[in-house]
Amino acid sequence: MIKTVVMERKPLSLSERTYLPQIASGLKTTFSNLFKKKVTLQYPEQRPAIPRGYRGVPTLVKDPNGREKCVSCQLCEFVCPPKAIRITPGHVPEDDEERSHVEKAPEEFEINMLRCIYCGYCEEVCPEEAIFLQENYSLSGYSREEMINNKEELYELGGTLPDKHFKWDKKKADEESGNAH
Amino acid sequence: MDTIGVQDFLIVSVLLFSVGFLGVVLRRNLLLVLMSLELMLNAVNVALVAFSRHSANMDGSLFVFFIMTVAAAEVSVGLALLVALYKKRQSVFSEHLTMLKN
Amino acid sequence: MNLSLVDFLFYVFSAISVGGGLAVILSRNPVTAAMFMILSLVGVASLFVLLEAFFLAVLQVLVYAGAVMVLFLFIIMLMDVGPDSGKGAKLSKKRILSGFIALLGVGLLTVLTLEYSGVATVATDSADHWQDVTEETSAAGANIVFSKSVKSFGYGLFTKYMLPLQVAGFLLLAAMVGVIVLSKKTDDVDAHNKADGPSPGTTNPQSEEA
Amino acid sequence: MDIELIQMLALKVTYAVVMVSVVMSIAGYTVLAERKVCAWMQGRVGPNRTVLPFVSAIPIIGPFLRNLGIFQPLADGLKFLFKEEIVPGHVNKFYYYLSPIVALVPALTTMTVLPFGEFTNAEGHTTPLVLANVDLGILFVFAISSLGVYGIVLAGWSSNSKYPFLGGIRSSAQMISYELAMGLSVLPVFLWVNAPGMTESGLSLVSIVNSQENAPWLVLIQPFSAFLFLIALFAETNRLPFDMPESETDLVGGFHTEYGSFKFGIFFVAEYAHVVIGSAIFTTLFLGGWHFLPWVADPWAPGLIGSLLGVGWFLAKTFCLIFFFIWVRWTLPRFRYDQVMKLGWAKLLPLALVNLIFYVILVTYLDQAAAS
After folding, report:
1. CB spacing of B76 vs C176 below 8 angstroms
2. C174 located within any domain
3. How does residue C141 score in pLDDT terms, banded at 50, 70 and 90?
4. CATH code of the region B6-96
5. Distance from C-alpha of A65 to C-alpha of A161, rounded to nearest angstrom
């Protein structure tokens, strides 16, 4: 059983009905705000503090030896909700000494920044830890074409990330010790 | 005023009055009829002020004052009537006001 | 012909007021008519200025252009009166004929009045004898002398024209009451509204606080 | 037409042009003040980017001026000038173009009778600084400012669109309602100044100011009249608690929804010109005009310097009032339309009448007491 409680509102006093004291106190509040410290950040000169785990521009990174990490498994392309990533897979030539234990590498890797929603799924899904969302957040361009980052641009933005586990080196070492699968 | 006399103001007044009169007779839109009435009152005002100024007597000007009062009252009542009429008959044209015809 | 400035202005203002008036009765769109009406009223006000009746000129603009015509425009827009159209949009010959016959009558009447009242002769005799206007309020018996000062209006209104002033005030009161009665909703409409539910303007406690 | 007449006309036209440009630039900087004050009240800094190239080179003053946004009105004006002219297809072209002009002209015409200072020459002869010292000053102001509503109404109507139309209708009703209260609220002032025993002055604004020299300002004698006049002024200038024709939250942009580029700019400037002129009129009527302080004689000597100081003092008072306008705008919420009408007819008008009757009785009593 729901009980309805009728609240009686106190009738307004004369001074309350003129609203003038209320208006005066409102004016006082706004006036005191005139002299408070401003919270505006002068953006181009001052930058906001970027928190840890910030999801900025997705980029490709190289391993500490300067080698391409991506093996074009296309998981990121698959998982990307707005379909911003497009990968053209390619083979690593057999005679590449540096990457002799990798079969595939992207021939072309494009991230369309007009589509990207910075969700970070690509970073999450990448088995090779080759794609990272960086702290950079201000991207601009004069045309749509300019806003599509190709492989070179992505590597330029990403650079080399110090990496603890040298996966390919381990793999190579394993193979050499006859432990390949 | 060098060459302009009372009669020139009177001519303007008569012209304005005739224009207002024609408006009252010719127009079908009652709003415009009301406006034309205002024009006629204005014509009278011009004549009154001209005479008042000419004979250096305040009476004419004071009368203009009263005419303005009457005009304001007339317009407010007239427009209220028009609105009431419009609510009833959805028209402000004089030829639609044929209630007395049959 | 050597036109003085005042003469020139007289012709300009007369043209504005009469031309504006003509445009009022000739324009098909009521809003256009209202705008020309304002033009005509301002022209008349300027004529008052030429006659050195400054108070009346300002009053003309204040009362007519500032209040009456705003009211007109408000009503035109409220009722959404479009241009004249449909049956009878064109003036019938009968109408035009009757209009001009009536106009002829008015003209005849004017001429006859001018002829027989002696006004015309007075006017032509003293065409260029405008008397100088004083700033002071002065009265000789019942004759209050025309002056530029606002005070002479007050003097005249509260001495010689006291009764008409009261009557005018009463007229305004009557007009106000009349308009309120006319524009008030009738009782059955109110009852109908109440049956539908409380209207937001009357029963909402919020509106009482305003 | 003789030479003297032409000379006089040329002089008057020059004065008028100077005054128009001064008022327009004050209006432009009022826009800036609005943006700055609003920003400060909301904990922001407001416009502080625009700067002229050679000014930014000056070491300390340059950045200071830049932070104050001194050059923002220039940039705004230029932006309005060079924006693309877009005329919606459904508007009534003639009135659509006409209405911004109709809105601006009355706002600027009002200032012809506005006295802003006085000049006393060596012989002690005092001339008020005013374009036209009309005996009917305040009536002229009311008459001309009441024409300003046509701009809004026509804009609303000619836009041929729902929201502007509503804005126009609201505006016309609001103007008629508050003009009455406005007129009645200043009547006691003129009654007081023209009372027997005082200097006779008619309705001139100059003599109102002069009656406040070495005497209490009228706001101290008639605080209630001043209060009512101020409220009506807010309504007449369409400032925030009463900005029915605009009300950007419920009517999109009100009467200027369909306007863009320079035509919108004219509406914008007209609105602020109204605020400037309104503040100046209030200063003239109630705050002693260019006179120094209540009961205190002007400290400046007669002559050019003194008259300039007087004008400066007048402007300072006006700016304070403009600040008050802005301050109120960023404090109070908007009235609902029916509340505006109710306040105008049911509260302000009776109060103004009571105020008038009170002062009629008071003046009569004082007059009787002085006579006996």
Report:
1. yes
2. yes
3. low
4. 1.10.287.3510
5. 10
**Cα–Cα distance, D231 to A19 (Å, whole number):** 13
Contact C205 A9 (CB under 8 A): yes
CB D285 within 8 A of CB D189: yes
Residue C206 has what pLDDT?
39
pLDDT band at B54 (very low <50, low <70, confident <90, very high): confident
Boundary of a domain, candidates C41, C65, C82 = C82
* Residue at a domain's end among C61, C82, C103: C82
Q: What percent of chain A has pLDDT over 90?
A: 3
- Give the count of domains, chain C: 2
Asked whether residue C134 is domain-assigned, the answer is no
Chains that touch C (3 or more CB pairs under 8 A): A, B, D
Q: Are the C-beta atoms of B55 and C51 separated by less than 8 Å?
A: no
Q: Is the pLDDT of residue A76 over 70?
A: yes
pLDDT digits (tens, 9 = 90+) for D116-135: 877 777 777 777 777 777 77
Extract the residue ranges of chain D whose pLDDT is less than 70: 1, 196-201
| Ramachandran angles phi, psi of A59, nearest 5° | -140, 165
Distance from C-alpha of C5 to C-alpha of B33, rounded to nearest angstrom: 36
- CB-nearest to C148 from D135, D139, D175 is D135
Overall residue count recorded for chain D in this entry = 372
Buried b (16+ CB within 10 A) or exposed e, D321-332: bbeebbbbbbbb
Question: Which chain D residues have a beta carbon less than 8 Å from that of C149?
Answer: 135, 202
Q: Where are the domains of chain A?
A: 58-159
**Within 10 Å of residue B76's Cβ, how many Cβ atoms?**
20
**Interval D194-211: pLDDT, tens:** 776 666 667 778 888 877
**pLDDT, tens digit, for every residue of C84-134?**
665 555 667 777 787 778 778 877 777 777 666 666 555 555 555 666 676
Contacts with C153 from chain D: Cβ below 8 Å:
none
What does CATH list as the number for A58-159? Answer: 3.30.70.3270
Position A149 scores a pLDDT of: 85
For residue A6, give the 3-state DSSP assignment.
coil
Nearest to D327 among A31, A36, A42 (CB): A31
Give me the domain span that covers residue C191.
140-200
CATH number at residue C71: 1.20.120.1200
